[in-house]
Amino acid sequence: MKLFIRSLLVFLVGVFLLGVVAVVATWAPDKPVDELKPRWAQAPSQFIAIDGMQVHLRDEGPRNDPLPIVLIHGTSASLHTWEGWATALRGQRRVIRFDLPGFALTGPNQQNDYSAEAYVRFVTAVMDQMGVQRFVLAGNSLGGQVAWATAVALPQRVARLVLLDASGYPPESASVPPSLPLGFRIARMPALRVLTQYTLPRSIVEKSVRNVYGDPSKVTPELVDLYVDMTLRAGNRQALGRRMDQGYTGEVAGLKTLAVPTLILWGGQDRLVPLEFGQRFARDIAGSKLVVFDDLGHVPHEEDPVRTVGVVKTFLGL
Predict the structure, then answer these.
(1) Which of 17-21, 96-100, 150-154, 301-305 has the lowest mean pLDDT?
(2) Cis (ω within 30 of 0) for the bond into 44?
(3) Which of 20, 149, 245, 276 shows a CA-CA span of 20 to 30 A to 116?
(4) Where are the domains of the chain?
(5) Measured distance CA(148)–CA(72) in Å, rounded
């Protein structure tokens, strides 16, 4: 019996020491936003004051464009996810993109509110401050939910709508349960949140990004650098936990009231928001068009900007 107890104690001490080593090896405290700006907020980035936040934003293309294109990213992403689209569109159209509250360089809001309703108010405030009355709105994942919710709330201001692997329907209603990236699963576990505020294994970030690509080989070290740094921005890890608590289900009944021309793009390899949800959007939004990219994942605009923006340009008559 004594030998057993001694062996158990040795085992437990070993596990504890391994845990300490793992924490030390992955120790990653928050980074102040000013430390991140030199690499990730180069021109044409700017920061504008909205509701007590300094919002990271890029505004490119001709200022006389009567219908600017506004691009909204998804959970844990940033305005950088739209770089390929912005490059293809800014020669002909005004393109506005920004980091949502709770993410990237914008960081947390004072209310600790990351609901779709709060994001609709935020998008409205940004457009008001920029003097943009009507616009084309495109969004991916959470950004897609924000986009369609904004179109429902402001039908007189949203001229066209583009949804890419958008959220909004109850995830549990899928015939095949969504496969959450590892980083998101951890963020949903309150018991692990305290630990994740101080550690960030790069391997978890890389696995999470690879999970949302149809072809994981396209995920580069620089792309992982971006996602790591945007996660480490001071306050973002706490905000992500709150965002996950608030869920991704929207007031989808409003979709049937939409009368705005709508393009729906979907990655056929999306394991996070399955294609059947894209098909539901196509049924619920009258006159909408669904285009599926069989080989792409949850972020088709980032994974293959050339092909995806080509469909958008046709939709916009460019």
Answers:
(1) 17-21
(2) yes
(3) 276
(4) 1-30, 33-316
(5) 11
Chain centre distance of CA 137: 15
CB 290 within 8 A of CB 264: yes
Give me the count of residues in the chain. Answer: 318
**Closest listed residue to residue 272, CA positions, set 242, 303, 306:** 303
Strands ordered across the beta sheet of 69-72: 45-50, 53-60, 95-98, 69-72, 135-140, 158-164, 262-267, 289-293
CATH node for 33-316: 3.40.50.1820
| Helix, strand, coil in percent for the chain, rounding step 5 | 50, 15, 35
Token couple for 12: 């437990």
- Write out pLDDT tens, residues 298-307: 999 999 999 9
Q: How far apart are alpha carbons 273 and 298 in whole angstroms?
A: 7
